[in-house]
Inverse folding.
């Protein structure tokens, strides 16, 4: 489980919330995102999505099917997710199907900017060495927050050029034409997966990757 708390003095709660929701913008700032697909909505505050994420070689890409829930109050914004199954989205060849027990963002409006609280508890599956799991636990959360902050700073300008009024996560009326999830297809299922040894990565190569400069936001 990883947790991070950060203050974004130059970002409003609404902007941080929109960045985390806007799938079209995600590929502009998250270099590890391979694919993100909205399977459908359950109700105005819940949907089911498919994600696949790249990683540092030789760690295999992971993929997930997750139910995402969100809520807006006067001063707080909440997004939380956990893994589910969908019969139309089995594990993809070349990816290891990981399990997210809980992933969440709590965004709290402040007098100046916002506070972002991030937590993630997941099982990456596969066969990863203990030292790597420990290192990722220490490194990932701060890097996620740093990348999110940079993405938030660039979002208002980007959004002005890319469907500025399209925000179905905040405007339920825009969900009318979105696909609905067939919950019958979301029954729990255990997938048989090959156990792949990913222990060939050295601490030096992880350190090198971690020290690379962050990518700029793509237009």
């Amino acid at each position: 489980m990883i947790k991070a708390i950060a203050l974004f003095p130059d970002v409003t709660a609404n902007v941080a919330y929109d960045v985390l929701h806007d799938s079209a913008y995600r590929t502009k700032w998250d270099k590890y995102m391979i694919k993100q697909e909205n399977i459908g909505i359950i109700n105005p505050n819940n949907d089911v999505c498919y994600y696949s994420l790249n990683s540092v070689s030789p760690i295999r890409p992971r993929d997930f099917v997750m139910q995402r829930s969100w809520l807006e109050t006067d001063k707080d914004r909440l997004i939380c997710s956990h893994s589910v199954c969908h019969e139309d989205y089995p594990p993809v060849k070349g990816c290891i199907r990981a399990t997210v027990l809980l992933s969440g963002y709590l965004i709290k409006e402040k007098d100046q900017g916002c506070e972002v609280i991030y937590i993630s508890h997941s099982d990456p599956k596969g066969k990863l060495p203990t030292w790597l799991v420990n290192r990722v636990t220490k490194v990932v959360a701060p890097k996620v927050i740093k990348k999110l902050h940079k993405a938030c700073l660039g979002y208002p300008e980007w959004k002005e050029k890319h469907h500025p009024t399209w925000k179905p996560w905040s405007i339920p009326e825009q969900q009318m034409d979105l696909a609905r999830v067939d919950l019958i297809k979301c029954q729990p299922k255990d997938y048989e997966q090959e156990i792949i040894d990913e222990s060939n990565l050295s601490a030096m190569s992880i350190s090198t990757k971690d020290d690379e400069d962050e990518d700029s936001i793509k237009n």
In short: The chain has one domain: 2-179. The first strand starts at residue 2 and ends at 8.
